[in-house]
UniProtKB/TrEMBL annotation:
Subunit text: Heterodimer of a catalytic subunit (MsrP) and a heme-binding subunit (MsrQ).
Catalysed reaction, written as an equation: L-methionyl-[protein] + a quinone + H2O = L-methionyl-(R)-S-oxide-[protein] + a quinol; L-methionyl-[protein] + a quinone + H2O = L-methionyl-(S)-S-oxide-[protein] + a quinol
Family: Belongs to the MsrP family.
Gene Ontology biological process terms, A to Z: protein repair
Cofactor(s) this protein cannot do without: Mo-molybdopterin
UniProt KW Ribosomal protein keyword: no
Superkingdom assignment: Bacteria
Alphabetical list of InterPro entries matching this protein: MsrP (IPR022867), OxRdtase_Mopterin-bd_dom (IPR000572), OxRdtase_Mopterin-bd_sf (IPR036374), TAT_signal (IPR006311)
Protein name: Protein-methionine-sulfoxide reductase catalytic subunit MsrP
Natural source organism: Candidatus Lambdaproteobacteria bacterium RIFOXYD2_FULL_56_26
Length: 305
């Protein structure tokens, strides 16, 4: 008999932040079975009838409408309307720098090449709001391995798409575009680092970073760069848009840490999207310490934040 063990970071589906019920493939199959037993109910209604008490009201609407995507706007409420009807991607991801063989990869082929997975992760923005999001995509490690970085490659730099024709925020002179981010190579090859192409069982909407974005659940959300155009392996720590804009704020690591406040607010607590009144304690590494703390052994996290 094959025993399936759940990875330690896996969250139950009932923890998913959504307005509508998140129907995972498994749930849908269950629902289909129940719908047969209760003709007249849709699979989702049948599933809700059976498992309703476990379900948190869906916040899919919130996660896909309350967005930070500065290339469109710095106003969260404006991003989705501006992105409506704009199709970013598919495109070829450029992978280069210190690799054996630079390559270009069609974003539509990622799932086929590396195998698609669904991951339910906590997400924590530096602004002290949080969510739980079901992503679909591929492990970043697989792509890094395929690129075969040279021994001198110590960091990975990600650069986002820029198209002033459809992204009015790029006209703002406040930011040194393009949006760029970086990870140390051992962070990029950690099991939890993920490239998302979908959300809530659907393709990623433009406002959430289509066609492909990074998801690094133990770091503040700004590290999770959207609409990635290129990935470059480097010997030295790359500069990032936020390190350039706010050098007095968080550094390169930006690991979620309740003890390191933002210069203008505390990070001790957070608000979960959809429950604006109550705050909950922020967890070190956003609750993924068991998996990632070893990456930072010997590093003073209060100084190297
Ligand atoms: N990626 C790009 N290209 N541009 C951005 O402005 N904002 C970041 C990150 N990735 C951003 C980006 C920030 S600050 C956050 S909190 C998350 O995206 C928000 O992701 P979400 O809108 O899907 O919740």
């Amino acid at each position: 008999m094959k025993l399936l063990s759940k990875p330690s970071w896996q969250l139950p589906e009932s923890a998913v932040t959504e307005e509508q019920v998140f129907v995972s493939r498994r749930a849908l199959v269950k629902g289909l079975g129940l719908a047969l037993a209760w003709p007249g109910l849709s699979p989702m209604q049948a599933w809700a009838a059976k498992f309703g008490s476990e379900l948190t009201p869906s916040k899919e609407e919130l996660v896909t409408s309350y967005n930070n995507f500065y290339e469109f706007s710095t106003d969260k409420g404006e991003v989705r309307p501006l992105a409506q009807g704009v199709q970013l991607g598919p495109w070829e991801l450029e992978i280069g720098g210190l690799v054996e063989k630079p390559l270009r990869l069609d974003t539509q082929k990622l799932a086929q090449l590396f195998g698609e997975e669904e991951r339910i992760y906590r997400f924590r923005c530096v602004e002290a709001w949080a969510a739980v999001v079901p992503w679909r995509g591929v492990g970043l490690k697989k792509l890094v391995e395929m690129a075969r970085p040279l021994s001198g490659a110590k960091y990975v730099r990600f650069v986002a798409h820029m198209d002033p024709k459809v992204m009015p925020g790029l006209a703002s002179g406040h930011f040194p575009w393009p949006y760029s981010e970086g990870l140390r190579i051992d962070e990029a090859t950690h099991e939890l680092a993920f490239l998302a192409t979908g959300i809530y069982g659907k393709p990623l909407p433009t406002q959430n970073g289509a066609p492909v974005r990074l998801v690094v659940p133990w770091k503040y959300g700004f590290k999770s760069i959207k609409s990635i155009r290129s990935i470059e392996f480097t010997a030295t720590q790359p500069r990032t848009l936020w390190n350039d804009v706010g050098p007095a704020e968080y550094g390169f690591y930006a690991n979620v840490n309740p003890e390191v406040d933002h210069p203008r607010w505390s990070q001790a607590t957070e608000k979960l999207l959809g429950s604006w009144v109550q705050r909950q304690p922020t967890r070190l590494f956003n609750g993924y310490g068991e998996q990632v703390a070893s990456l930072y052994q010997g590093l003073d996290l209060k100084r190297n934040y």
